[in-house]
């Protein structure tokens, strides 16, 4: 019995896929890269983006055709809107919420697949179910990079976003489980660990008095790094500007293992658009957080998310976003053209910015980003940076990696044993979104 899993969307879905694989492995199924060989095929969907949903329909159409000549069971989970779920129930054999993952063996057994006795999870509420889900040990996709979910769901209800309707309200994972997982990964020699959540810096707020805060969680993890001889970097994504406290920034500055890279989504540089987006922060509040980052962690790189062409966005409001991008000097911005999503509050609003204008605004912001990120990269030339080698590069005879600040670096080497290691690279040239260098030496491998 072989299985194949297609994962769409964000890093949270990627992390969830590692737990799905663990459950299927525990049933005795074997992973295959070739989906045509699989007897069980699953997909982790993303209702946040229409392109991802379109891919789901394309995949299931092919899989259902195969059922005429092959025994095949299909399932779907991930971020799914109620409207999409209703449609998927008619197309997939099994549709389940990710928090119900521990019940997957029971679900599959109904289709004649012999599995070990499943755990009884009847009459559990969503918060209890997600706790059982977190107890499933992940099958990490990498030997040096791992993702740790610390929270599920969202309470922010941004008007453009469907996540509260796909993943539910915020639930914080028990901190002792998170800390234990970090310790385990450090002991195994992992170099990059990312804490995941829809709003990581609101961690613990749903369990006031029962759980530590996000700043305290980072401090606990920082102490693990301080007590270890092993070199590793801890990232987190995504925080919300409303909950970004000075205390969190102070903790990051205090510990070497807490990566000096901050992903802080702004979405728009105009206050009226932010109000319409229900972002619950102003440009002034956002600026205060960035000022604190520049003061306390001057070496930190800054990433963000931006939406162009949101419902009713005027040319003046777009220009305010351009001003914000230049003011905050982002190293990277994930820029998306607005598209309506069923379930989000803005779905009923007019999508009144012409597609041609959206594309023009996307291109202008991308040019602005290239200028500011390119200037930062040029300043790296001549300096030596530790780089986590991630893979071979598209350029033949080169390896590719990232600095602690997640700046992409390529350097000449055919030594594949360096993949997963931290090496020192002297930067020799730069472009807008990456740099090139020469290998200096392999950083001391300890821990």
Automatic annotation (TrEMBL):
<feature type="domain" description="MTTase N-terminal">
    <location>
        <begin position="1"/>
        <end position="113"/>
    </location>
</feature>
<keyword id="KW-0949">S-adenosyl-L-methionine</keyword>
<dbReference type="InterPro" id="IPR020612">
    <property type="entry name" value="Methylthiotransferase_CS"/>
</dbReference>
<comment type="function">
    <text>Catalyzes the methylthiolation of N6-(dimethylallyl)adenosine (i(6)A), leading to the formation of 2-methylthio-N6-(dimethylallyl)adenosine (ms(2)i(6)A) at position 37 in tRNAs that read codons beginning with uridine.</text>
</comment>
<dbReference type="InterPro" id="IPR005839">
    <property type="entry name" value="Methylthiotransferase"/>
</dbReference>
<dbReference type="InterPro" id="IPR007197">
    <property type="entry name" value="rSAM"/>
</dbReference>
<dbReference type="InterPro" id="IPR006638">
    <property type="entry name" value="Elp3/MiaA/NifB-like_rSAM"/>
</dbReference>
<dbReference type="InterPro" id="IPR058240">
    <property type="entry name" value="rSAM_sf"/>
</dbReference>
<feature type="domain" description="TRAM">
    <location>
        <begin position="378"/>
        <end position="441"/>
    </location>
</feature>
<keyword id="KW-0004">4Fe-4S</keyword>
<dbReference type="InterPro" id="IPR023404">
    <property type="entry name" value="rSAM_horseshoe"/>
</dbReference>
<dbReference type="Pfam" id="PF04055">
    <property type="entry name" value="Radical_SAM"/>
</dbReference>
<keyword id="KW-0479">Metal-binding</keyword>
<keyword id="KW-0963">Cytoplasm</keyword>
<dbReference type="GO" id="GO:0005829">
    <property type="term" value="C:cytosol"/>
</dbReference>
<keyword id="KW-0408">Iron</keyword>
<dbReference type="InterPro" id="IPR038135">
    <property type="entry name" value="Methylthiotransferase_N_sf"/>
</dbReference>
<keyword id="KW-0808">Transferase</keyword>
<dbReference type="Pfam" id="PF00919">
    <property type="entry name" value="UPF0004"/>
</dbReference>
<dbReference type="GO" id="GO:0035597">
    <property type="term" value="F:tRNA-2-methylthio-N(6)-dimethylallyladenosine(37) synthase activity"/>
</dbReference>
<dbReference type="GO" id="GO:0046872">
    <property type="term" value="F:metal ion binding"/>
</dbReference>
<dbReference type="GO" id="GO:0051539">
    <property type="term" value="F:4 iron, 4 sulfur cluster binding"/>
</dbReference>
<protein>
    <recommendedName>
        <fullName>tRNA-2-methylthio-N(6)-dimethylallyladenosine synthase</fullName>
        <ecNumber>2.8.4.3</ecNumber>
    </recommendedName>
</protein>
<feature type="domain" description="Radical SAM core">
    <location>
        <begin position="140"/>
        <end position="375"/>
    </location>
</feature>
<dbReference type="InterPro" id="IPR013848">
    <property type="entry name" value="Methylthiotransferase_N"/>
</dbReference>
<dbReference type="InterPro" id="IPR002792">
    <property type="entry name" value="TRAM_dom"/>
</dbReference>
<dbReference type="Pfam" id="PF01938">
    <property type="entry name" value="TRAM"/>
</dbReference>
<keyword id="KW-0411">Iron-sulfur</keyword>
């Amino acid at each position: 019995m072989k299985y194949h899993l297609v994962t769409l969307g964000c890093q949270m879905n990627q992390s969830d896929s590692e737990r799905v694989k663990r459950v299927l492995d525990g049933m005795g199924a074997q992973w295959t890269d070739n989906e045509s060989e699989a007897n069980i095929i699953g997909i982790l969907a993303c209702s946040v983006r229409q392109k991802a949903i379109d891919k789901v329909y394309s995949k299931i159409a092919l899989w259902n055709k195969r059922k005429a000549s092959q025994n095949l069971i299909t399932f779907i989970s991930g971020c799914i809107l109620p409207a999409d779920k209703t449609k998927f129930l008619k197309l997939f054999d099994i549709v389940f919420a990710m928090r119900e993952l521990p019940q997957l063996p029971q679900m599959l057994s109904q289709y004649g697949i012999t599995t070990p006795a499943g755990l009884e999870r009847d009459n559990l509420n969503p918060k209890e179910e997600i706790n059982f889900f977190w107890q499933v040990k992940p099958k990490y996709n990498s030997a040096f990079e791992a993702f740790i979910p610390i929270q599920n769901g969202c309470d922010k209800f941004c008007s453009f976003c469907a996540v509260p309707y796909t993943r539910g309200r915020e639930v914080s994972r028990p901190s002792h489980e998170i800390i234990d997982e970090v310790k385990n990964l450090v002991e195994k020699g992992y170099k990059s660990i990312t804490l995941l959540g829809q709003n990581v810096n609101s961690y613990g707020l749903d369990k006031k008095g029962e759980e530590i805060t996000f700043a305290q969680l980072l401090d606990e993890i920082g102490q693990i790094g301080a007590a270890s001889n092993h070199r590793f970097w801890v990232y987190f994504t995504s925080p919300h500007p409303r909950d970004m406290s000075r205390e969190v920034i102070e903790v990051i500055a205090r510990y070497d293992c807490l990566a000096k890279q901050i992903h802080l989504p702004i979405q728009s540089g105009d206050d009226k658009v932010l109000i319409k987006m229900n972002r619950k922060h102003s440009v002034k509040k956002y600026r205060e957080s960035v000022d604190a980052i520049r003061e306390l962690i001057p070496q930190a790189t800054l990433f963000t998310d931006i939406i162009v062409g949101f419902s009713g966005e005027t040319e003046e409001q777009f220009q305010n976003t351009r001003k914000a991008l230049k003011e905050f000097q982002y190293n990277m911005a994930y820029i998306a053209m607005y598209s309506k999503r069923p379930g989000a509050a803005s779905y009923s609003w007019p999508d009144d910015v012409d597609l041609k204008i959206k594309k023009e605004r996307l291109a202008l912001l991308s040019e602005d980003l290239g200028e500011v990120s390119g200037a930062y990269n040029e300043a790296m030339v001549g300096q030596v940076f530790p780089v986590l080698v991630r893979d071979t590069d598209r350029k033949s005879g080169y390896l590719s990696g990232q600095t602690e600040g997640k700046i992409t670096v390529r350097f000449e080497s055919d030594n594949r044993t360096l993949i997963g290691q931290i090496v020192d690279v002297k930067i020799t040239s730069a472009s807008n979104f990456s740099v090139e260098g020469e290998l200096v030496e392999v950083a001391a491998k300890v821990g």
